[in-house]
């Protein structure tokens, strides 16, 4: 039996074949099992000797099968390795280089413009306290501007900032009152969130770019000067602007600066809601309450603030008619904008 087993085993090439041999020798009607059954025909003395021999044989065969199983597995593994794909690391990569997002391009451009005018760039948090987003910018509890449905609240009572103005207080506290002749000039771009119904001109996630200048005698004419400088640089042409009074609790007086819609040339399109004008630059003189909450004495200092709709500006600059493109991840379209 032993000889027969080792002959048959050496011909085995797969696990199926191995299993067949196992059954043939150790199965219910297997050769070894039959030998064990035959033991009952022997007398006690013979049984003892033969029993030992058959059991040894059985153990040997069991062990041989287990060992062979391992050998087979290793062989299969080797085969897999040999047939696996091979890489040639010396072949030049074909991965394309990405491009900046159009909003990033416009943001960087404006940052550069303001840096040359002495502004510091600050980064604001996206998750904010109610205090920073509302109270600190003069929007008390129960103020209509705090419309619950507009804001994404988190379970811990914080919220996703609804405007970049949420950073005003933190920045004022960080830099403190400006030194004489050295007004505080800060630019702070950021991603903002509002619970909007999304369509071609509304998104729940969009970018603003806010700026502040605080000093001893900052006036509306400073504000107008900087806004004009900004828009001329961005559009590289003389843009038509329209200034309307605007209400924001954190500025007094407040303005809405509109620019003529470059997409339709003033004819009317979905971007300008068919009016020919795009609301682009809300701004105003910082409210005394906001200054004092930021630790800056409103009797000594004044300042202006503006909150540029960066996403809208990018739409106008690149003639993008649907705001949804920006968050779409549609690279084919997004990578067209390079400058
Ligand atoms: N925070 C205002 C908004 O979200 C914009 C703004 C900023 C207005 C600064 C005036 C001054 O719309």
UniProtKB/TrEMBL annotation:
Cofactor(s) needed for function: Mg(2+)
Pfam families: Phe_tRNA-synt_N, tRNA-synt_2d
GO BP field: phenylalanyl-tRNA aminoacylation
Location in or out of the cell: Cytoplasm
Catalytic activity: tRNA(Phe) + L-phenylalanine + ATP = L-phenylalanyl-tRNA(Phe) + AMP + diphosphate + H(+)
Gene Ontology MF: a single term: catalytic activity, acting on a protein
Top-tier EC class: ligase
Sequence ranges assigned to domain Aminoacyl-transfer RNA synthetases class-II family profile in this UniProt record: 183-316
Binding site for Mg(2+): 252
Enzyme Commission number(s): 6.1.1.20
Cofactor binding note: Binds 2 magnesium ions per tetramer.
Entry keywords, A to Z: Aminoacyl-tRNA synthetase, ATP-binding, Cytoplasm, Ligase, Magnesium, Metal-binding, Nucleotide-binding, Protein biosynthesis
Listed GO CC annotations: cytoplasm
Family from the record: Belongs to the class-II aminoacyl-tRNA synthetase family. Phe-tRNA synthetase alpha subunit type 1 subfamily.
Subunit: Tetramer of two alpha and two beta subunits.
Name the record gives this protein: Phenylalanine--tRNA ligase alpha subunit
Organism whose genome encodes this protein: Mobilitalea sibirica
UniProt lineage: Bacteria, Bacillati, Bacillota, Clostridia, Lachnospirales
